[in-house]
Amino acid sequence: MTKLSLGSHPYMLGFEQLERMLERSAKSGNEGYPPFNIEQTSENSYRITLAVAGFAERDLSVTLEDRQLVIRGRQRDECDNRVFLHRGIAARQFQRSFLLADGVEVGEAVMENGLLHVDLMRAQPETVVQTIQIKKG
After folding, report:
1. Domains, the chain, ordered by start
2. Distance CA 2, CA 122 (A)
3. Is the link from the previous residue into 35 a cis peptide, with omega within 30 of 0?
4. Would 122 disulfide with which of 44, 81, 87, 128, CB 3.0-4.6 Å?
């Protein structure tokens, strides 16, 4: 039995890029920190919420790189002379990546009560019917 990949299926023409995006997403190495939610806020909008307690706005960056939403966090340790008797709150960096479909645009990012909200909107696709002229060969 031969295993067919998405890009090699005979009825799926031009979907090789989708297969590469799925592979890239699987290899992104998101370990589970920070925890996040994805919710659908309307028929054409979504919200990604990350729990980023301890991070300030200046410690976070939200970028869009080749249809991939990348959220990074890096805390700055401003007081090097502190002596911790117990350090249970980790000051670690993170990177979370989300692949966005064509037509999904990033709206605003808002920090609220230790939560970072990133809003996404999906544009309404236009239905296009195109007639192809048949030429004599």
Report:
1. 30-122 (2.60.40.790)
2. 37
3. no
4. 44
